[in-house]
């Protein structure tokens, strides 16, 4: 079955330009549809897909599982969700699903027609469960998988959020001191004949802010905008990331994060009945681009008849502990369970590493920011101390 796309068509109706949305395999097919209906088509452009929020997919899966476990078939369950929903995006998504289901498609085929909403991992999990008749269990496994992956993302984001907040607050305090307090303080030294070096520095900065404050503010804004745009460039991001990964401890934790996502994905697919070679192809999506070539070689080794444990070890996509557990899973037929156990093991190890890093890094960061602020305050009062010492 050919894949359809959404198109926004502009056409003339009694001399007036109107727009409508249609589903077709290509722009030519969409134009042909409206021309057959008697419309004069002006242009056909792809419709920009509106993203449904990540949490909405999780909620949809939870509700669908509840209805399926209550005894409803897939079509009835989705019809029930459509009747209960008031969100336009969700209603549109459910209508498309029902349209495919009414046409005789499986749920996985209906989901695959909306790749902007349903990821390939979910589609393949559903497709494998349709052959075994355990759709509700497959959806629950995928929902649990997404929850665990999201927890890992939140943990990493939370670790990075604190330094950003501290640095931002520290930067604002320093800007306030240099922009308002230091210029006001410099007025104390105006008119004095004998000034110390620190007093001259404060007086110079105060006069600079007083006479060129707007220029300094514009220069600061320009610098911030420049660095903001610079750090958004993929090449710069990759370069900085590579420099950070030169630290052995951080490189090891990044590798653990990759292992957690990879083995959790692999376990989900194998447990759902997806063959190992196909599961490896799908798991490629959760690996960074730097590891894609390794996984391709793993797939080649597996297709050549080697075991999964040997193939992963040859490309350094495992650890001694993970390799032993995979070997146990291969012998016992519990490969999916062992992949999940590996993911859980390294998930805990990564959490401990993040906690240890946070306990060390946060106080050090506070000391650095506090030291810079304290240095500015010290420079403010140092001329007074120097003059008091000379008077005594």
From TrEMBL:
<dbReference type="GO" id="GO:0005886">
    <property type="term" value="C:plasma membrane"/>
</dbReference>
<keyword id="KW-1133">Transmembrane helix</keyword>
<feature type="domain" description="Type II secretion system protein GspF">
    <location>
        <begin position="60"/>
        <end position="183"/>
    </location>
</feature>
<dbReference type="InterPro" id="IPR042094">
    <property type="entry name" value="T2SS_GspF_sf"/>
</dbReference>
<feature type="transmembrane region" description="Helical">
    <location>
        <begin position="213"/>
        <end position="231"/>
    </location>
</feature>
<feature type="transmembrane region" description="Helical">
    <location>
        <begin position="160"/>
        <end position="182"/>
    </location>
</feature>
<feature type="domain" description="Type II secretion system protein GspF">
    <location>
        <begin position="262"/>
        <end position="383"/>
    </location>
</feature>
<comment type="similarity">
    <text>Belongs to the GSP F family.</text>
</comment>
<keyword id="KW-0472">Membrane</keyword>
<keyword id="KW-1003">Cell membrane</keyword>
<protein>
    <submittedName>
        <fullName>General secretion pathway protein F</fullName>
    </submittedName>
</protein>
<dbReference type="InterPro" id="IPR003004">
    <property type="entry name" value="GspF/PilC"/>
</dbReference>
<feature type="transmembrane region" description="Helical">
    <location>
        <begin position="364"/>
        <end position="384"/>
    </location>
</feature>
<keyword id="KW-0812">Transmembrane</keyword>
<dbReference type="Pfam" id="PF00482">
    <property type="entry name" value="T2SSF"/>
</dbReference>
<dbReference type="InterPro" id="IPR018076">
    <property type="entry name" value="T2SS_GspF_dom"/>
</dbReference>
């Amino acid at each position: 079955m050919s894949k359809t796309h959404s198109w926004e068509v502009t056409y003339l109706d009694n001399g007036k330009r109107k727009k409508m949305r249609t589903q077709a395999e290509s722009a030519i097919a969409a134009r042909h549809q409206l021309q057959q209906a008697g419309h004069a088509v002006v242009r056909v452009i792809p419709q920009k897909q509106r993203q449904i929020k990540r949490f909405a997919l999780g909620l949809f899966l939870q509700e669908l599982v509840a209805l399926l476990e209550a005894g409803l078939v897939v079509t009835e369950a989705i019809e029930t969700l459509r009747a209960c929903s008031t969100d336009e995006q969700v209603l549109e998504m459910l209508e498309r699903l029902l349209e495919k289901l009414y046409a005789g498609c499986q749920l996985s085929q209906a989901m695959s027609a909306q790749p902007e909403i349903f990821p390939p991992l979910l589609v393949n999990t559903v497709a494998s469960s349709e052959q075994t008749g355990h759709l509700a269990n497959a959806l629950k496994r995928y929902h649990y998988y997404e929850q665990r992956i999201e927890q890992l993302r939140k943990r990493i984001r939370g670790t990075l959020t604190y330094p950003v907040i501290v640095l931002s607050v520290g930067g604002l305090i320093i800007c306030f001191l240099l922009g308002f307090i230091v210029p006001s303080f410099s007025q104390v030294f105006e008119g004095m004949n004998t000034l110390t070096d620190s007093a001259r520095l404060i007086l110079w900065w105060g006069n600079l802010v007083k006479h060129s404050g707007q220029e300094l503010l514009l220069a600061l804004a320009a610098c911030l905008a420049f660095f903001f745009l610079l750090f958004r460039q993929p090449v710069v991001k990759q370069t900085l990331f590579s420099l950070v990964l030169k630290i052995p401890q951080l490189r090891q934790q990044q590798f653990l994060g990759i292992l957690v996502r990879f083995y959790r994905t692999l376990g989900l697919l194998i447990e759902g009945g997806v063959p190992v070679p196909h599961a490896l192809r799908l798991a490629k999506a959760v690996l960074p681009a730097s590891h894609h070539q390794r996984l391709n070689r793993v797939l080649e080794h597996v297709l050549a008849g080697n075991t999964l444990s040997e193939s992963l070890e040859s490309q350094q996509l495992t650890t001694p502990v993970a390799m032993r557990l995979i070997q146990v899973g291969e012998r016992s037929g519990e490969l999916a369970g062992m992949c999940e156990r590996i993911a859980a093991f390294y998930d805990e190890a990564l959490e401990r590493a993040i906690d240890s890093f946070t306990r060390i890094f946060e106080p050090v960061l506070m000391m650095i920011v506090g030291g810079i602020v304290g240095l500015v305050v010290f420079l403010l009062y140092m001329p007074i101390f120097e003059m008091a010492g000379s008077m005594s």
